[in-house]
Amino acid sequence: MSRVNLAIIGGGLVGASLALALQAGAKARGWKIVLIEPFAPGHTYQPSYDARSSALSFGARQIYQRLGVWQEISRRAEPIKQIHVSDRGRFSTARLSAMEEGVPALGYVVENAWLGQCLWQSLDKDVISWRCPAEVTRMEPLTDGYRLTLNDETILECDLAVLADGGRSGLREQLGIGIKKRPYNQSALIANITPSEAHNGMAFERFTDDGPMALLPLPDNRCALVWTRLGMDAQRLAALDDRSFLGELQDIFGYRLGTLKQVGVRHLYPLSLIEAEEQVRPHLAILGNAAHSLHPIAGQGFNLSLRDAQALADSLLGSETAPGDFATLQAYRERQRLDQSLTVGFSDQVTRLFGSTQPLVSLGRNIGLLGLDLLPPAKRWFARQAMGLGTRPDE
């Protein structure tokens, strides 16, 4: 039976980011960290038209710069130079501009495969070891850590177990950690689109009576589509042939990017706001979608998880105690409580405000969008939320 200081259960983007954030400090302290992941990461990046992507906020760029990996990530990171927010059939729009905010970009859109490769290749094998493909089937709390049973019957003990195994975490349920779930009764349809005109780094947030949609700029003049519809209608859209699908999308979105020429594989994801009722216990921390899963339209989910990972690393490395100390984990939780509360609230309220078809709500949000474009303080507040800087003071 072997023992490590930290076991990160889930080697995806959040788990790998945490490992990278801990790496230098762990090496100085002689800590050993293991990443346990059921799906082996690819050794080489393979371009794909249908690659899934993530929207990284400007705050996420700052974190990855601090970790020394941004220069590599930026090679295939498409900058968001402007965000155009509109409500279909109404008079008001708002525009956010990187130039007005004094930043090189409001955010960046990066293919998950590329981001993952950049993270995995930056990990020091002398500090971070992989158990992959491998899966934890059982977690048993000890007085000084956790005992993990893997699917090959291997037993591993750790001072601190970090659960980062996604929103459908079976281990979270096994440990008796409840969730607060608020279904949106919607599904997100995800696909990549090619328009006839250059996107020039423009991201679009378009709100309609049938649900919000976002088109985000990708490399090679593709756009990442996130289209939120009621469940049955989302299934109908997913089943359409490409020409019919592009026709409906064109009708809703308009011709701001010219003719929509190509659509890739479509994926559907049922949407709910999910929050774990506990994020820390002695010798246990929960990160990523296992801790909180947000509506994708505001683009805040991964960015919040990345800030959590950085804050957890800072708390662990800033403590004189061994990983797993409950007071240290509680301090981390308190440190992130405001950020999580504001970000979850912002994402949820944007979703509900722009998902309502009630006439008074519709009028109110149009006045709000108009005011957002006319009132610099309100516009700056909204921009800082979008950039992942909403809980940070101006520098």
Automatic annotation (TrEMBL):
InterPro entries: FAD-bd, FAD/NAD-bd_sf, UbiH, UbiH/COQ6, UbiH/COQ6_monooxygenase. Keywords: FAD, Flavoprotein, Monooxygenase, Oxidoreductase. Its EC number is 1.14.13.-. Its cofactor is FAD. Pfam families: FAD_binding_3. The keyword Cell inner membrane does not apply. PANTHER family: 2-OCTAPRENYL-6-METHOXYPHENOL HYDROXYLASE, UBIQUINONE BIOSYNTHESIS MONOOXYGENASE COQ6, MITOCHONDRIAL. This is 2-octaprenyl-6-methoxyphenyl hydroxylase. Pathway: Cofactor biosynthesis; ubiquinone biosynthesis. Residues 5-336 form the FAD-binding domain. One of its GO terms (molecular function) is oxidoreductase activity. Belongs to the UbiH/COQ6 family.
